[in-house]
Design a protein that fits this description.
Strand order of the largest sheet: 3-4-7
Enzyme class: ligase
Domain Glutamyl/glutaminyl-tRNA synthetase class Ib catalytic: 4-353
Helix content: 40-55%
Strand content: 5-15%
Pfam families: Anticodon_2 (PF19269), tRNA-synt_1c (PF00749)
Number of domains: 4
Number of helices: 20
Motif ('HIGH' region): 11-21
CATH topology of the largest domain: Rossmann fold
Distance between the termini: 76 Å
Radius of gyration: 33 Å
Structural class: mainly alpha
Subcellular location: Cytoplasm
CATH class of the largest domain: Alpha Beta
Largest sheet: 3 strands, antiparallel
């Protein structure tokens, strides 16, 4: 790739960053890093009516937690060594002085025009068309019949401007042309310009629409590739035309597939997560107006690596059977050409599968610290002991929140026993075996898991009883249920005295 790669993730601060936005940011990041390029965060906050306090910081925090920080962005020094002022500022609200001059330039070039139509006028035309079974489109077909600088004389236009009449600036979409658009993921697309409307580029409130601001910013920031969601595909024709109207070189475009509901039908929404019990946001979000709390993957106990690995496969395929990728491997392997056109089904069980995998790779000491901090019952327990416990049980865990249920018996004596197991296992024979086993264990001198196992197995062999006849009631005595890691590991961890105490407890319970 010869030209310098510069890509941008450009969310609006209208609420928490959806998981689909994180996927878009990730693909931009992977593409940039693969090609030794720059990943930019631009905040598109031209719609001040929808601005939500705290949303911008949430976006920044989410990208940082996901391990995909931006090189250029708002309120940061560039980490690329470039002059900060060369491409900033990175909030569109701080760039609004730029957009009017470009809108005026389009008018001067004959590619845009003033439109003075009131909301009432447009409502009238829409209603009139609907009554006739038609759809009202503001374009070549009717713009000369409406109130704009194409249908009015220059004097009339100037008079309206001088009188302070409200206006918008619309793009003048061409008639009877065929546009050939190119998308890295979707290939060539043909569009008949006769079906396009004259989009508003500059609003009556003095702010640009997304379309104008987006094109101007991408040009000024020298964006080489626009990688964004499929929902922007219908805007591609207008954006192509705007680049041509200004005489600017176009970036390359790639529109990512939708992330679908777990059923595979329809776009994934927050409602789906609420209904099925999984987050759709990377971090917890507290609505500043309603105080409603929305769950986040971080707070739910997911590891960053699991989330990134999972998101990478939502629409992308490496072309191999490999599923586990480090971020570095993703950067090396990622290609936009291997992104699918069709929507990607969100599978909440699959991200749990990834999380379970990455659980096994976590440092036991770090997991133990987190586990201890979450449970007051562990306050007085040596963290080194907790770390040993974690090493024994984490292969059965998906989240740190699973640890207590999997390991409580390492820290406290069982107070009850599983009723069904107790009724089935604790026969009179079992009672006699446990009473004798207690003596065998008590006699072990060098108390290690291996030595206890050797002595117990030797004793079982001499008794000529089935292995399960001893091990099942022993596990029930130690754990209270028929679960847990190797029995002899448990015995070693809790110690000789506690082991004997638990055997006595289960015998006396008969």
């Amino acid at each position: 790739m010869t030209k310098k790669v510069r890509v941008r993730f450009a969310p609006s601060p209208t609420g928490p960053l959806h998981i689909g936005g994180v996927r878009t940011a990730l693909f931009n990041y992977l593409f940039a890093k693969k090609h030794h390029g720059t990943f930019i965060l631009r905040i598109e906050d031209t719609d001040q009516n929808r601005y939500v306090e705290g949303a911008e910081q949430y976006i920044i925090d989410a990208l940082n937690w996901c391990g995909i920080p931006f090189d250029e962005g708002p309120s940061t020094a560039l980490r690329t060594g470039s002059n900060k002022n060369e491409f900033g500022p990175y909030r569109q609200s701080e760039r609004k002085h730029l957009y009017k001059q470009y809108a005026d330039e389009l008018i001067a070039l004959g590619n845009a025009y003033y439109a003075f139509d009131t909301a009432e006028d447009l409502d009238f035309y829409r209603t009139d068309h609907e009554a006739k079974g038609k759809t009202f489109i503001y374009n070549w077909h009717n713009r000369l019949k409406l109130s704009n600088s194409l249908s009015l004389s220059a004097e009339e236009v100037q008079a309206k401007l001088d009188a302070g009449h409200e206006y918008v600036i619309r793009f003048k979409s061409p008639q009877d042309e065929t546009l050939l658009l190119t998308d890295i993921i979707r290939g060539d697309i043909k569009i008949d310009t006769n079906i396009l409307d004259d989009k508003v580029l500059f609003k009556s409130d003095g702010m640009p629409t997304y379309h104008l601001a987006n094109i101007v910013d991408d040009h000024l920031m020298e964006i080489s590739h626009v990688i964004r969601g499929e929902e922007w595909l219908p805007s591609l024709a207008l954006h192509y035309q705007l680049y041509d109207a200004f005489g600017w070189e176009k970036p390359e475009f790639a529109h990512l597939p939708l992330i679908l509901k777990p059923t595979g039908k329809g776009k994934l929404s927050k409602r789906d997560g609420d209904k099925l019990g999984f987050p759709v946001f990377p971090l917890q979000w507290i609505d500043p107006v309603t105080d409603e709390v929305s769950r986040g993957y971080k707070e739910d106990g997911y590891f960053t690596d699991a989330m990134i690995n999972f998101l990478a496969f939502l629409g992308w395929n490496p072309g191999t059977e490999q599923e586990i990728f480090s971020l570095e491997e993703l950067i090396h392997t990622f290609e936009l050409e291997r992104v699918n056109k069709s929507g990607a089904r969100f599978d909440p069980d699959k991200i749990k599968w990834f999380n379970h995998h990455y659980m096994q790779e976590q440092n036991d000491d770090e997991l133990a610290e987190t586990f201890k901090n979450k449970h007051s019952e562990l306050a007085e327990i040596d963290v080194n002991y907790i770390s040993l416990v974690v090493g024994l049980i984490k292969e059965r865990a998906t989240f740190i929140s699973d640890f207590w249920e999997l390991s409580s018996f390492f820290f406290e004596t069982p107070k009850t026993y599983d009723e069904k197991s107790f009724a089935k296992i604790m026969t009179n024979d079992a009672r006699e075996l446990m009473s004798e086993l207690k003596q065998i264990i008590n006699a072990v001198f060098d108390f290690t898991a291996e030595n206890v196992q050797t002595e117990v197995k030797t004793w079982i062999g001499k008794k000529e009883v089935g292995f399960g006849k001893v091990m099942q009631p022993l596990r029930l005595a130690l754990v209270g249920e028929m679960k847990g890691p190797d029995v002899f590991d448990i015995i070693y961890m809790i110690g000789k005295a506690e082991t004997i105490k638990r055997i006595e407890n289960v015998v006396s319970s008969l």
